[in-house]
Amino acid sequence: MTAITDAPEVKVERSFLEVWIITIGHSLTHWYPATFYILMPLIGNELGLNAAQIGLIVSAQYFAGAISNLPGGILVDSVSRKGLLMATSLFWIGVPYVLMGFSSSYYVLLGCAMLIGIGNNLWHPTAIPWLGRRFPERKGLVMAYHGMGGNVGDALAPLAAGALITYFAWTWRDVVFANIVPGVIMAVAILWYLGSMSAAPKTEAASKDSKQLSGGEVMKSLPALFKNKVLLFLCITSAFRAMTQNGIMVFLPLYLLNEAQYTAAAAGFAMFLLQACGFVAAPIAGYMSDRVGRGSVIMSSMVMTGFVLAAMALVGNSPLFVFFVAVLGFFLFAIRPVLQAWLLDATPKNLGGTAIGAMFGIQSIGSFIGPAICGAIALKWGILSAFWFLAASIIIANMLVFFMPRSAFGKPQPAE
To answer: CB of 148 within 8 A of CB of 95?
Structure first.
């Protein structure tokens, strides 16, 4: 008699093209605000804004994100057309910057910043769980590629804006008007390629934690989701990391342009170095986290980030300052994709959008608080003093990791 056995499950091979398309889209969600960071000192000079008012513009964006990210994540988990959500996010982020270009009102800038915060919350809860479900065995690596897209946008945008202003005599308004073009092109590309594609692989179709949920089902799942200690500690850790990152992104250009007397092009190059080193670090950190575990990668990166920030505050306006900016980018941006992959490891697949929405909502609180506190510190003790505060915030983030359940520190298990 011939033995009858179950046929082994066929592994679905997927093209990395969708990873690259989503990664490029992610780069544009970062391109817009990264351009704005280098433009803010110029806008502040034109409108007569002080450091605290400039910090409040960015804080307003992240305040809106803090209160809308979780609803955005719930929406993402209850809507099947993920490509449409990603395209909508790109459009929603780009248009308010154009509106800023037509205005000379500080309050219009605040309102547009809040609109950007709301639109941006659709991208990450959609794109990150999509990639995690499509490539479950390489989750850390694809999160790193996605994060690299953000680094590219953050790196090239200030470099391009600084060069256009310095060498081509563009105004900040010219830059924000031109910025809308690549976003529209990329939104169309995402709709065309990803519009009808499902995030869940066919081999997962019958899985209980992979099926598409309704909005009501997502809401019923929230109490159990937020009892997950790993999720809660990762979200809080991410908030302190975001506080550090956003404080750097706002006040590093202010220091370089206003205190160190860099040109716009030189300041843009320094911001480029920050992000370029993060670009290099992301795939290394993602790959290592898939192999040796998320916790060890995150803790070592946070320790080094704190040391480098303290060194920046000590050396001040010297040639070493830009060197430490580059080193800072390597360690600071290595943390982001690993945190996201770790969160998805601890979350049911059909609640990935809600979990990522919660993470970005809570970290938006850190992003909201960071520039406001740095602005107050800068007014009282000078901009370099803000870097000491940022060093302390990343050290606190590292300490929080120690409170996570020990079982969460193991090597990630292969997907079923």
So the answer is: no
Question: What CATH number did the domain enclosing 231 receive?
Answer: 1.20.1250.20
How far apart (Å, rounded) are the C-alpha atoms in residues 28 and 23? 9
b/e per residue 295-324 (b: at least 16 CB within 10 A): bebbbbbbebbbbbbbbbbeeeeeeebbeb
Let me know if residue 1 belongs to a domain.
Answer: no
- Quote the radius of gyration of the chain (alpha carbons, Å): 21
| Per-run averaged pLDDT (10 residues), the chain, 416 residues | 40 68 86 80 85 79 77 76 79 82 86 82 82 80 83 79 83 84 81 64 50 66 77 84 82 81 80 79 81 78 81 77 81 81 81 81 78 82 82 78 62 49
* Residue 7 domain-assigned (yes or no): no
- Count of beta carbons in the 10 Å neighbourhood of residue 388: 16
Q: How far apart are CA 257 and CA 225, in angstroms?
A: 45
Q: 200 lies in a domain?
A: yes
Range of the domain at 370: 17-405
Other C-beta atoms lying within 10 Å of the C-beta of residue 20 = 12
- State residue 264 phi and psi, 5-degree precision: -60, -40
Exposure class string for 88-118: b at 16+ Cβ within 10 A, else e: bbbebbbbbbbebbeeeebeebbbbbbbbbb
CA distance 159 to 277: 14
Work out how many domains the chain is built from and give that number: 1
DSSP H helices in 255-293: 264-292
Considering only CA atoms, which of 185, 127, 194, 186 is closest in space to residue 352?
Answer: 127
pTM of the model: 0.70
Contact 346, 234 (CB under 8 A): yes
CB 223 within 8 A of CB 355: no
CA distance 289 to 409: 10
Q: What is the DSSP letter of 200?
A: S
Per DSSP, helices labelled H in 102-214 are 106-120, 123-134, 139-167, 172-178, 180-194
Residue 414, domain member (yes or no): no
Q: How many CB atoms lie within 10 A of CB 1?
A: 3
- Greatest Cα-to-Cα distance within the chain, rounded to the nearest angstrom: 88
Closest by CA to 289, choosing from 127, 408, 150, 133, is 408
**What one-letter code names the amino acid at 118?**
I
